[in-house]
Automatic annotation (TrEMBL):
This is Nucleotide-binding universal stress UspA family protein. InterPro entries: Rossmann-like_a/b/a_fold (IPR014729), Universal_stress_UspA (IPR006015), UspA (IPR006016). Belongs to the universal stress protein A family. It holds the Pfam family Usp. Residues 1-134, 153-286 form the UspA domain. It comes from Streptomyces echinatus.
Amino acid sequence: MTRPITAGVDGTEESRAALDWAAREAVRRDLPLRVVHAWRYAEALAAADRDTQRGWVSEGVTEAVRTVSERHPGLTVTTDVVEGAAAHALAGAAAGAEMLVLGSRGHGRVLGFLLGSVGQQVIAEAARPVVLVRAGDEATAEAAGRDVVVGQHGGPEDSAATLRFAFETAAARGAAVRAVRAWTLPPVFAYSPGSLKLLDDAGGLEPYERQALAEALQPWRERFPEVPVAEHVEMGSAAQVLLSVVGRAQLMVVGRRARRTAVGARIGSVAHGVLHHAGCPVAVIPHE
């Protein structure tokens, strides 16, 4: 089954930027584009019944799609106007998508995203990758020779979905992958005879981390031999190390482990930190 790239739109400048980004990515990957708008009937507009309000929404979506279709005449585009809460509707739309692309208000040209409750809930609940795009994240950044930067952690299986997305995206764009692995000194009580032997065999902590990154990348290098790969291993928190190379990124790819608390969904400190400080589009990939 061919999964479309799905863009959530709401008439804002940010959602138009997300739609443009999604359309370009759909063309690169030779995939259809699905445009989704979630809306709720506004009882305060007493002069307009439900069908009339839905018609207004549909007209706005049609106009946005018309612009995209004119820019990409070979692109297959479908639209859906879904009544219901935005977060629930968008998370549902993501289920059948290759990725869900959303717009987000940004702090400015240097800092990252203002992630509202809807965006955070969608990222936490979506079973597929979610890409956040700001107004101002233009196509010129994609053509500037920047890398697709991806965070890797743990063993090869822990970051498989994240690395797959990064390599597929880089291959579609003719870009390089910059794989980043952060490490910190473990507490003394975490050492065991087995772990000490592994570190000794690798020649120390940093060589061990470099070896772990190389092993995680190996299957993806073999699958995508045309994609250049740069490896970056640095001591520090994962979010800080990723953000240290954000200036080289046309897209930042991170994984997330969503969890629910009494005060709502949480998407993990790394994804949260990158989303709030990255100056480029960010793809958040659920762990398989």
